[in-house]
Structure formats: structure tokens, C-alpha cells
């Protein structure tokens, strides 16, 4: 079935990466098969969440885990879990946080917007986000001072290239300082599924990642961490989490994705991404006004992207090139996070060889070569 033709939708060549606004990932056949099979049966949701918890624990080194509707839901429910624990009365009271710890600390340089402000995801639980430090500086003294202020439910930390990259307290120290005050740490690692063991290894109490980014699953969020807090996350389904619960296809998709990842040859996967990036550089070589290079993933994941630095004297800027590529059908969506700085990236992970060739042809066409 051609859904683009049936509903009059533009085709998309995804040279941007694992982005929610481009509808997540291409779901791998092995994962799609598991999700599809689940649609043919009934299950007790608590049993499949328990099965997911065992798989998440084995894949991450965490005590337990569960699946939510998405990683944004996981952040809200994780904050709520830190506020209520396993007290059902408190669960049913939220978002009224009266009488329970409600201050959630976050370094100001971590107050990102991933489609919604992360501070809003915190407030949805009934908590009060407390921004610590300034936009480009947060000291251990400032964090300790905020921790000493009382009524702290959690510290939220964001692992993303969108955060300030220097002048802040690193995650291992955040964990040490928070734990010294008896406060749990919740990590937004939405695109960090390849680093889950590392993040859990830092001692983080809850780590949230997306199932539909590099795990290439159906839409869902994966929560890994301490067993007591994971149970409290699931308990939110009887309260504010009711609208954020994961369906059976999300849970089985996440299970299948983690099992696939455990058996995957990641060195071969990285080599394949390197091959595609090298192909981009070959296809775009020699374009006047375009300087090519390779940037590793800024979060430390095992892949790179092709970087296109645009000289305005060429008649294009990085912004105008991005718009030119996006126009038309198919729309070539480049990774333009740094376009105002004069460069963009072509992310090859979600492109087939044919799509890669077409995307590069569109770049050459934009430059008239």
C-alpha cells in the first residue's frame, strides 16, 4: 500500500536523523514482526511490563525497567515516581503535590526544548522545576546549595548535544552530590540508547531513552533504573500516567528492539555508517563554495555525520541550502541544528543508498553543478 499516494503526503528522505517530527525511525523488520504479532492477541499489561523489565535489566545493567508512551512521558512519570514512591494515595493526589517533595533541580544549561520544554515535562507531574546556575555556568556549590533547600524530589540531568557543553556539573558528580543528600537522579537520555549501560553505571536512579530512535522500534519510551522507582513509575498508570501508558505493540516493540540490539554487531553497524558517510563525501566532492568534513556524534555514540560548510559567496548559505533541499517532493530533510553558524549535516543512518544518491544530487543541483 502506498500511503503517500493514498493520502497525498510528501515523500521524505531523512538526512536529519532520528527525529520525532519525521515520525521516528524506520522500524526494523524483526521488531515490526514482534509488534505486529502482539496485535493479534490479548495480554495482561502488567505481565508484559514485567517481561519488559527483565529484558531492560539484562540489556542495561539496571535493576528493573518499564515502557512508557514515549521518552517525554517517561520524564514526567519518572519525576512523579520520585515524588510519590509507592504511596497510592500520593499517586492519586497528583498533580496536587501538597505534602510531598516537589522541587526538581535542573542545571539551567540543561533546560532544553525537544519539542516541548523539559521544564514543562517536569511541571506536568505537579513538580516545581528549579533552575540552578546560569545558562553557561553551574558550580557544585550552587547545586549543593539548591539541594540543601529542602523538599527536593529529584535532580533531572539531560544527556544531549543540545545542552551547554562546558561550565556545568558533569553527570557522575551530579549523582554523587545528589545521593549525598538522599536525592535520586533522573536522566533524560532520549537519544542515548547506545550508552544505557554507561549511564546506569554512573549510579543514576532512572534513565529514560527512546525506543523509536536508534533502537528503531515502535513509538515508546524505555525507563531503566532502581526497582522501587520503576515500580513507582508503573503505579502512575493509576493516576496522571493513565494517558501516557504504553500499548502492547509499544512494549513488545521495545522488547524486540533491545533483544535485537543485544545480538547486533555494533562494529559492523558503525562500519556501515562510515561507508555511507564516505560515499556522501565522494558524491559532493569538488562543489565550489562547499567544504566537506566528518563530525563524530557529539554524544559519544559510535557513528559520524557528513558536515557541509557553506561559503555565502557561493550564492547559498547553510540556511538557504537547507530550505532548498526541503522543498519539493521528495523533501530532503538535512540536519540543520547549526545552519545559522554556517554549516549543516547529512545524517546517513536512515538513508538507503538510493536515497543517499538522490540527496547528494539535490545538493549538486542547488549549487548548479
Provide structural commentary.
- By secondary structure, the chain is of the alpha/beta class.
- The chain has helices at residues 3-7, 29-38, 45-60, 71-84, 88-93, 118-123, 140-147, 171-180, 196-201, 227-235, 248-263, 266-284, 318-326, 353-367, and strands spanning 12-15, 64-68, 103-107, 128-132, 152-158, 185-188, 206-210, 221-225, 290-296, 304-310, 331-334, 343-346.
- The chain has two domains: 3-22 and 266-367, Aspartate Aminotransferase, domain 1; 42-263, Type I PLP-dependent aspartate aminotransferase-like (Major domain) (Aspartate Aminotransferase, domain 2, 3-Layer(aba) Sandwich).
- The strands form three sheets. Strands 2-8-7-6-5-3-4 form a seven-stranded mixed β-sheet, sandwiched between helices. Strands 9-10-12 form a three-stranded antiparallel β-sheet, with helices on one face.
- Helix 2 packs antiparallel against helix 11 and helix 3 runs parallel beside helix 11 (248-263).
- The longest helix is centred in the C-terminal third of the chain and has 19 residues, at 266-284.
- The two termini are 36 Å apart.
- The model has no long low-confidence stretch (mean pLDDT 95).
